[in-house]
Amino acid sequence: MSSGWKSTYGNVRSFLGNSMGGLRGGSNLASWVVAGTLAYFLWVKPSQQLRKEQQEKAKAAATDPNRYIEKQRPVPNPQETGLIYGNKNRGNRSADKE
């Protein structure tokens, strides 16, 4: 009767080994370490950092609403910067002529 639990243990061990890609020993451990490290730096850490920044912004805005200002660069007008050709600064030139 003792062979019953041994075969069950062997079947579970075989199933777990196959479910992890069939790798055994050091290569299996190394592949899981690499996958875990990549997952941490690509998904976990950025999401934690974003959540922390959002909490800091909310805390700063809640403590003194006049002190906290969202900093964004203004979007340049493509007509004035010369990205769109045509009537560039026509309004300013007519004012300069007079």
From TrEMBL:
This is Protease. GO terms for molecular function: peptidase activity. Keywords: Hydrolase, Membrane, Protease, Transmembrane, Transmembrane helix. The keyword Methyltransferase does not apply. The keyword ATP-binding does not apply. Residues 54-98 are annotated as: Disordered. GO terms for biological process: proteolysis. The chain crosses the membrane at residues 25-44. It comes from Lithospermum erythrorhizon.
